[in-house]
Amino acid sequence: MNLIAGQGQAVFSWLAVALFAGVLSYFGCIKALALAERSGMIALPGNRQSHQNATPTGGGLGLVFSIVMTTVCLELIISLPAFWWQKILPGVMLLTFIGWLDDKNSVSALLRLLIQLVVSIWLVLSGSHEFSVQGLVFWAAVVFGMVWLMNVYNFMDGSNGMAGFQGVFAGVTMAVFFQAGGEEVMALVAVAVAAACAGFLPLNFPVAKLFMGDVSSVPLGFIFAAFAVYGEQTGSMNLFVTILIMSVFFIDATLTLLSRAFRGERWYTAHAQHVYQRLIATGWSHRRVLIIYQAINVVLILPAIVLVKMFPQYAVVTVAVILLLLGTCWHIANRRLGMTAEVQSK
User: Fold this and answer.
1) How buried is 113 (Cβ within 10 angstroms: 0-12 exposed, 13-18 middle, 19+ buried)?
2) How many Å apart are CA 232 and CA 99, to the nearest integer?
3) Which is nearest to 203 in space by CA: 311, 77, 62?
4) Element (H, E) at 209
5) I need a labelling partner for 124 at 20 to 30 A (CA). Which of 139, 244, 284, 333 fits?
């Protein structure tokens, strides 16, 4: 543990890991761009897309490559938790493989859902759990939450920089909690994830030369869900913090899906009805939309996270207020933008 001994050493370790993972991700994504072009993996503009030009997709393969290689290199210096190697990384690799196939040729939604369930169940079965109806319900809820976060992250990967910047925000925030909770090594892994997302951004924002694709958006959702489980098990992070970190994504994706279901639409099909997508459709730039979403993270979500950390007895109330506020903003945006079923049927 000499590498992370002392606050100064911890800062140096964070910077070194961030630089290594970020540079590796950038060049890995450039390689992925070339591979996507050779493989014909091009996302074409359409009514269900928020971009105007044909753009290579699947570039997140370089991002995942950076995360894997950075953790391998870290293992040569310090010992990473077995939870990473045994529970998180196998799921990441399987989801990346399926995501690549889906970006290239399209994989059935049922198979993708099955894989997501398998990796989630594998992760929550770590350790020993006494059998009880209450425990079974709890872990079933955890599995559902993990699968939903994977899909939420995938749904929100439809605007330049959106998924990448959220990955930086979530990775850094979780790293801070791991560090404060005595999980210094897992903090470095979270920093690596954030830096890998940052390394992807020059190719995706402000003008997208490359899209992330399912190859990394789904694995990223899984990683952050797995971090939440690990944080809960080690006491370094709780469920309320995770909900707040992902609340902007949760609200837009969840309420959009529910509203489509209530209107009798095929909610499980691709669409362009998220608030961020319709803002772009009305003329907002990708940059402006991103600034709004990340400003909410910085101005509203971060103070709420600090409040939950300082006053855990008010965690439920704090999360409820934030979700209610975001839900209200979502509702107002819908009324002003005019969500209709026509976007899907055109």
Assistant:
1) middle
2) 28
3) 62
4) none
5) 244
CA angle 317/291/248 to nearest 5° reads 30
**4 token code pair:** 């992370």
Report the pLDDT value the prediction gives residue 296, as an integer from 0 to 100: 96
- What does the alpha-carbon distance between residue 72 and residue 217 come to, in Å, rounded to a whole number? 21
Tokens of 102: 């889906």
Closest-CA residue to 71 (of 178, 157, 186): 186
CB atoms within 10 A of CB 209: 16
Contact 172, 179 (CB under 8 A): no
Q: Which residue has the tokens 């994989």?
A: 107
CA 119 to each of CA 82, 115, 263, 283: distance values in angstroms, whole numbers, following the listed order: 16, 6, 32, 39
The residue ranges of every structural domain in the chain are 1-231, 238-346
- The Cα 321–Cα 324 span in angstroms is 5
CA–CA distances in Å: residue 231 to residues 52, 71, 241, 326: 40, 18, 10, 25
pLDDT tens for the chain, 346 residues long, are: 444 445 667 788 999 999 999 999 999 999 999 999 998 888 776 555 566 677 888 999 999 999 999 999 999 999 999 999 999 999 999 999 999 999 888 889 899 999 999 999 999 886 545 556 676 888 899 999 999 999 999 988 888 999 999 999 999 999 999 999 999 999 999 999 999 999 999 999 988 899 999 999 999 999 999 999 999 999 999 999 999 999 999 999 999 989 888 877 776 666 777 888 888 888 889 999 999 999 999 999 999 999 999 999 999 999 999 999 999 999 998 888 775 434 333 2
Alpha helices by DSSP H, listed for 39-183, are 60-77, 82-83, 89-105, 109-124, 133-155, 162-180
b/e for 270-284, b at 16 or more Cβ within 10 A?
ebbbbbbbbbbeeeb
- Nearest Cα to 179, choosing from 14, 344, 346, 2? 14
